[in-house]
Amino acid sequence: MEWRSRWHITIRWDRAENSPAGVTVLERVVDSTAELRHLVARARADRHVVAFPYRQVRELVGAEPDRCRRGHSYVGGSATRAVRDWWPCRCGGHLVLRCRMCPDVRVDPVVSADCTPRRTDS
Ligand SMILES: [Zn+2]
Ligand SMILES: [Zn+2]
Question: Is the pLDDT of residue 62 over 80?
Answer without folding.
Answer: yes
